[in-house]
Each structure stands twice: as structure tokens, then as C-alpha cells.
Amino acid sequence: MEKIMNITKEDLAKMTLPYLKSLDHETLVDISFELRNVVIGLLERLEKNSKNSSNPPSSDNPYKKKPKDKEPESSDDEDKKDGEESHPEKPNDSPRPEPERNPGRQPGSQGFWRSETPVPEQIISHYPEQCPCCNRHLNIPDKASPYMGYYVFELEKTDSGIRISCCLHHYYIIMCECGQEVKSSPGQGYVSHQDGRKKDLKLTEYVMTGPMLVTFIAALSVRYRMSRPKIREFLMYWFGLELSVGTIDRCIREAGVACFPVVEELIDELQKEDVVHLDETPWNEKGVLKWMWVAVSCTIAIYLIGTRKKEELLKLITEAFLGWLVTDGYMAYRDHEKRQRCLAHLIRKAVALTGAVDEKAQKMGDWLLKELRCLIKTMAEYGEDNKKKCSPILARLKKACNLGAKEDHAKLKALANEILNDWDAVVAFVKNPDLPPTNNEAERALRHAVISKRISFGTRTSEGSKAYAALLSVIETCRLRNQNPWDFISQVISLGRKGIAPGSIPLFS
Ligand SMILES: [Zn+2]
């Protein structure tokens, strides 16, 4: 169907009334038929919506009322992401035009600093405890003065809500009896380097934002999709806390970077899972097309932003993985032997066929749709008896595909061949009743990010992408495990700033 769309505006411009009148009958018939096919293609494209294609529900005409839902399995498909099997070359959202300047404070512009000296509620003193030379325990002298100090703002949960506290941290040097000067100093951890950035992002205690405040800011950004200037405004009006947009940006990235070791452990855990759902959607990294992958099991969700190549997939699903994959028809997935093909994708294509202009294609579409739905329904209804019940359906589906593959209608032929060429993966769930026949879990897991991308136009750096993906992974995995993600992330940051590896996300609470 797409081929005949090759007709150009110039072709149409040539077809004036005098030109058409000058043609002989046979040529005129040929041209009319060609034009008819073009119109059919256009009409079918116009009728595309979230029910019969991979278009997202948000693209549906809001003025057209949905008919009462008669199709239970297709209603699950509404969570469709906008990256679709037709593999768009570019993200649907045109990226914001790139500004000439770099983000953040411009060279020469007025700097941002606190208008008043903060008033600390508490002074926390840090003394060295032990001498590294002689292992002697160090006593705190009566009169000591700190060699360094800094303020830390922290978000505290109280009985009645939340508040921002301010503490002054003092660090001391003690002279040991052995003559060694021993210093206490703020903790330090992982350093993240990003090419082209003046200062590396270092996990350290020597910052003005406490772990819970950093987590709160990351939550406002990633989960509640607030822009950095909005977060700045929010903190100022509701807490009287003045932070620069640069500091807020640093907090969001720090939270993500602190989660890197948690995600590494989740990837190891994922390889032992029985069933993993996989999907991918277009992503935008500073105007460059990237892909966001997601791998979801019952207790793990891992996001990854990168290319759409198979190598990228191997970072999520390694050779150690022996379980089942539930995927759409994307070729990168095809090598894996134990695979269930998502039936919701095929059903959407069959639904599109039922609206074809060609009567034969319409009827065949109806048939395929009926058999696919019948298969899902029968598997859901009959436990042990399913194999007996399903074999006639499988036979009919195969017959319909074999007939469809011989037809001239391009879309009918394509769908029939798609099912036949991947037959074992399409029907894997009949032999293995524990397999889900659709990939809704993965599509649902991508939905939050797809909406965020539309609001924020994606991420700006590879570190930003990795940090964002790490936060999404930890938040979604915590949700699957019924854990509070924010308490966990705050703990991860607190440990990371001391250079201590975080524990894994608890499985049960
Ligand atoms: Zn000593």
C-alpha cells in the first residue's frame, strides 16, 4: 500500500483538466485506478488510531467519542508507547530548537549566592577518632577550634509533615601523642566524569544539600516532572530555601549517579528471572535520536538509554539469561530462542485490516482477529484442558495466515507472513501456560518516560541519560517490591557519599 504513495505533487500538478481530456481511454483508466489506490491508502491512514495501530491514545481525536468497550483484550493495549513497530526514523516530538548558549549561568553574568547567612539550629562536630599511625584512641581536647565548616540543608520528616533544617558541620584536627596530626574530613565517594564539563560530579558529604533533600528534588524532577526553574521556585516559596538551578541540577544527577551500583546489581539479578518483558521507545538526547529500553520481570524493572542496536540489548539481557523473553517483532529480539511474541501488536494490525477498503482484506482481517482473540480467551479460561481446546484454533489461524499470505493486499500479506515467520514465538504461550501473551507490562513501564519526554524533550548529556535511567529503574523496582523508593534512594546517597556500596532493594517489606 505504501508503494503507490509515490505519486508526487508534481505528478498531480501535471494532471490538469485539458491534460486528462487529451488522454486515450486506456491511459485514463490506468491513472484513475492508480489514484483510487492512493485515496485508499490515505483513507486507511486517516482511520489509524490507538485501537488499530501503535499510535498512542493521546493521538486519538478527542471529539470522537469512544464506543462502549466491547474488546477487553484490546483495552489493555491503550498503554501503547509512541515508539511503534513501524520504526519511526525520528522521535515524534520535534526537539526544542537548540539554543546557541550553554545552559546555566553565563560567563560574566551576576553569580548566585545566598542573600543571608543561614542560622544553624545545630552544630555537628566531627572529630578524628583514631590515629592511623599508632592506632591510639584520640581524646577530644578541651579547647579546639574547627579547621573547616559548612552548612547543610536537609529535609526532615516530622509527625505533622516535612520541614527543612539547617545544620553547621565542623571538622577538627587533633594532635596525637605520637606527634601525628589527625584530621577528620567529610566523606567522599564515586566521581562521575562528563566530557566538556568543567567540574566532575563527585559524591561527597561536603555539599549544602542533605541526602533526603537531594532525593526530594530528584523526586520532583523525575517522578513529578517539574522543570529545574519550577523546583527552584517551589523550594523558595514553600520552604524559604534558595537554591540555584545549577545546584538543583546537580542534586538530580547526584541521585541518579548514586543509584548506578544498585542498577548493576539489578542487572545481575535479572539474568536469573524466568520471564522478562522487553520493549523500546524513541528517546531524545540533546536533539539526537536515542532509544529507551526497558526490561521488566515480576520484581525488577531496568531502563537503559542508548542506541537501538543489539549490543545495547546485550547490556540488559546477557548470555547468562536462560528464561523467556516477551517482546514485539523487533529483529534484535529474534535470536533468543525462548520467546513469546506480543499478541496485542498483531491484534492491532488485524483490527486495522478490518477497516480496509478491500472487501477480501476486511474479511480476512476479521478472521485473523477472531482467531487471535479466541486463542487468548481460551488459554485464560481453561487450565489443563487448554491444549485440546486450542489445537483447532491454532489450525484455523494457520489456515487463515496461509490463505492471507497468497493475497495481493499488501497489509494482509504482511500480517499473515509476520505470524507465519514467527509462528513458534506467536503461539509459545499455548505450550507454556505461564507465559503472558501480551507485552503490556513493558509498555506500561515505558509510559511514564514517554510522557516525560514530551514535556522535557528528553535528556541533555550521556551522564544525564544514565542518571535518569538509573533513577527510573530504582523507583520502578521499588514499586514492584512494595518499597518506599525515596527512603531507599536517600539511604543510597548517604552511603555513596561515604564511599560505601549500597545494599540491594529489599524484596519484601
Ligand atoms: Zn598516633
UniProtKB/TrEMBL annotation:
Protein origin, superkingdom: Bacteria
Transposase IS66 central domain ranges (all copies): 226-466
Record field: compositional bias (Basic and acidic residues): 68-103
Domain DUF6444: 44-88
Entries under InterPro entries matching the protein: DUF6444 (IPR045618), Transposase-related (IPR052344), Transposase_IS66_central (IPR004291)
Region (Disordered) location: 46-115
Chain intervals with Low complexity compositional bias: 51-61
One matching Pfam family: DUF6444
Annotated NCBIfam families: transpos_IS66
Protein name, per record: Transposase, IS66 family
Species whose genome carries this gene: Desulfonema limicola
